[in-house]
Amino acid sequence: MEPVAGFTTLDLRSAPLCRLTVRSAVTVKLADDPRVETIPARMFPVKIVGLSRVAPEIVSLEVVTPRNQLLSFLGGQYATLRLKNGTARHYSIAAVEPESRVVTFHIRLVNAGAFSDWLAGAAKVGDLLQMEAPLGRFVFDTRHAERTLMVATGTGIVPIYAMLVALTPVERRQAGPMTLLWGNRVSSDAYLHETLAALGASMDFDYRPIFSQEGTRRRVTSEFPTVPLEGARVYAAGHPQMVVDIRRLALTQGIRPSDLRVDAFTFS
Ligand SMILES: Cc1cc2nc3c(=O)[nH]c(=O)nc-3n(C[C@H](O)[C@H](O)[C@H](O)COP(=O)(O)OP(=O)(O)OC[C@H]3O[C@@H](n4cnc5c(N)ncnc54)[C@H](O)[C@@H]3O)c2cc1C
User: pTM value?
Assistant: First the structure.
């Protein structure tokens, strides 16, 4: 980023913004992505219309927006869902069905989690929530890349899946040869496996599911290429530590910081 008069420019290559400790007032200038500015975030009252388990610990939550209030978003963006008791959590938007106005989220239940406990216990069809969306800048970069690596762990696949299904043929070509690494503990967690295998075949990308507690017990970080990656673009989404590790590996392999897009699922 070019220095701006009167401002200190921080190099965020070694520490993502969400992991910095701020000791005085700061102004942050985000990298520009004009498409994000074209869809301002709005508050929507939403009603639950679907709740189902898609894996032992993953719930698909479907909410509907009011009549005449369709949510527009770019694949990769997220929403903030707020419960009546004020608990608010961020969730990537898996899909929006324009006809029905149904917005889908895929949520992993964590132990003793405020939102998780509500979702697994009290939540029911008909409940009302507040939703603010769309949010975030983790969106597909439409500029040409020599190759593209997408890395996700667990429900970190949600923003990447939403990005992939929205790609136009021209955007797909701009991405060059493409690889998707999806890490899970065991195969029963990989609830989108069939869908991603089919997408990989139809969109011509190399989809590689990776399991840390099954078979050869691998991790996405050990599968990350060890060859120079100049000109490539990397997307990483999911567990915050994985995102930090992938960032480090990508920069070591020569990825420019502007070609690295990350979505860390930081805990509240
Ligand atoms: C931009 C963004 C997008 C996100 N998108 C998704 C998404 O699409 N799907 C999804 O499932 N989650 C997503 N998350 C994570 C989500 O916002 C919550 O952090 C998560 O659901 C836990 O909320 P909770 O209220 O159940 O637990 P909390 O009450 O927040 O936490 C309870 C305890 O669990 C720990 N904890 C929280 N999360 C985890 C975890 N993943 N692994 C291990 N321990 C944990 C906390 O440290 C705490 O000790 C996203 C986060 C961000 C920042």
Answer: 0.91
